[in-house]
Amino acid sequence: MIQQKPIENFNEYSQFESLKDFNNNIEAFLFEHKKDFTRSELMAFKGLVRFCAKVYGVSNASISTILRAISDRYNGHGVSESTFHRMKRKCVKLGILTVKETVRKDGSQSSNLWIFNRFLKKNDSRSNGNDTPCNQRKQEETAKNQQTNDEQMTPQKTSHHSFKTSNLNNKRKDVPLDYTYTSNRVPKEFRNLVNCFFDNYKMIEELWKIITIQTRCLTYYTLQDKVDLAVDTFKQLIRNLKIGRKIKNIFGYYWGIVNNFLDAEMYELMATLGETD
Hints:
Structural class: mainly alpha
Number of strands: 5
Largest sheet: 3 strands, antiparallel
Number of helices: 9
Distance between the termini: 25 Å
Oligomer: single chain
Helix content: 40-55%
Strand order of the largest sheet: 2-5-3
Shape: elongated
Strand content: 5-15%
């Protein structure tokens, strides 16, 4: 049985070289297994992850402490202890988490030791902080489901070779609908920004759909937060296009940018929590 002690004394259990390495492993795990968790279980999972910043991937925080932090973060909308235990069992079964019991000096049971296991091999390029969206092939497959099989998007006034389309010589009688046909569910600020580069309602709606999917579990996100995220990530997308970044699938690539922005936000908070522990 492991004796409880300050978290700094559990460095030997860490399997990660840096916070970024831990971040990349969690990102890859969630990309593969996010579908296996409910929204509440994801909240519990990310709540536990935030306590693993001081010693990368390791925490000895009590369940009550973790649940209280989740409740505070989501303005009183926390998760139950039973939800936390369901999340724990799933993580153990999927191999991302190991749970060890600890005892106090007097032999009484103390809080568990939470140990995250590596999901990526150490020689995997994604462990080294590569800025390419993780598992791009699968992201592209996901993004393709958001498009019609034969639809190609034509950008407005751009010389980037990735935007050239064979539809230029297509003599179909139908005319593509411009940005004015965009659903009113898409905020005007984002619609107008995207329109500067892509005058196509479908393109605008699909990009906004990625924002709504990526933030659906972030109940603390306001509409303005989502708009700010959409604007910042779209500007990053355009910047990468303008500097000549080769992009096979714009939706898959944008998905990766948004995912990286949200993860950076989460791990910045983790680092802050680690400093204040």
